[in-house]
Structure prediction request, 475 residues.
Amino acid sequence: MKLRNFFALFLSLVLLMGLNGCAPGANSSSALITVKLKKTQELNTRAAAYWSESKKPQQIGEPVSVVEYAAPFSYGLQYPKTGYQSVDDMIAQAVAERRAAFDKKYLLPENLPESGKPSADTALFLRYETYLTEDGNLSLVLFEREEPADAAPVTQLYILHYDLAAGTAQKPEDLMWERFRENASAYTQKYFLETEPYKKGLFGDYKKTLASDSSTFDRFALTDDGVLFYFEPYQLFPGSYGLVRLTIPYEDMRAKAAPPQAAPDIAGFDAEKPMVALTFDDGPNPRNTGAILDTLEQYNAVATFFDLGSLVERYPAVVQREIALGCEVGSHSYNHKDFKKLSNAEISNDVKAVSRAFQSAIGQEPTLFRPPYGNTNQRVNGQIPMPLVLWSVDTLDWKSRNAASVMAAVKKAGNLDGKVILMHGIYESSAEATAQLVPYLLEEGYQLVTVSQLIEAKYGETPQPSKLYGYDYFQ
Ligand code: ZN
Prediction:
């Protein structure tokens, strides 16, 4: 700040010296006029450059351009004249309000330059875009750029709606229809999560920004092609993405709610009877997870899958089928790193990446987390916003790659009531073992349940985030 002030002072000194140099003997008032002319020319150039950022051609009206240097600030404003008198009056009024709000803001003591006096180097620029629909609705998008004398520029945009025929202003809520927000929320989330370059850039609490109750969706323009939404720099993406526009076709904005999904037909289970949870890590794998799901479907049974975010992105249909069959789907991290070796920031990034993958594939978050290699500690647990789940029967299926060995390991474990069996969903031998194991367990009188069902029904507890359900828990 100090450096900047010093620089400003230096600049004004240079300017003064320069003036004396090129206008020797001139009195100070004509020097001031020269400065004002020069500054007005500069302002014209800056305003024209800013206005040129708007789309061409505009759908309606002729531009009204205002360039004023020092009154008490500087202005480079452009707005449309539509030829509809009452609408034009309202637009002029809206522009006057923006200008008054700007004056008020930059006359506040904290926004005044060091001198304490308003500076004509503080400028307000305004440009616009117009969108007109078949039924005569005008959406006027006003882009505003404030350039303080000695601070970074501030940009904002406002959207105003007018009914041209009636000559009235309209509120955004009067233009929305049933499921407007829900459809906008669903479409934008899916689009930005699936489309380059946006999917890599989404940051912060983007889910909140794109939730159906978010004020983001109050600001839209109705166009010929659909509903146009604007996302300002840093709202969803880093500043380098600039202003992001997304037009959602009317068809998608008017979509009806999806019919409620039929509850999966899972035989109700009895908390008093023996139960066991089968778990499959490292998937999804289209072939072998698919075969495991065939077995579960055949016996109307469920299991819990701890899937890798990277594979969920690659094989969303497999995860969708896991959900459709009533199975539970947890996270096994994005790409199987040892979490004890990750920093808290890296863990947080992993959780976010997996969350995106799950939201994109199945529209929900993973309910559980199984750390890769079962490696975790107090610090890691504290960073995971899900219950952490290990196992109590290890089939070593990844090592033997043999269905008979897997069956033998399970039989050797004795009473399985309340236990969690570890397998991997990516090997053909594990899929073969599952085809034998599921009917075997059912014949032995066990109910097959998900891990969350087991914790609730067998141990009488609601699974808690950041809590480790380890080897000893499931005994
Ligand atoms: Zn694993």
Remarks:
- Residues 281-282, 332, 336, 372 surround zinc ion (CB under 6 Å).
- The longest strand covers residues 137-147.
- The chain has three domains: 2-170, 180-254, 275-474.
- The domain at 275-474 is CATH 3.20.20.370 (TIM Barrel).
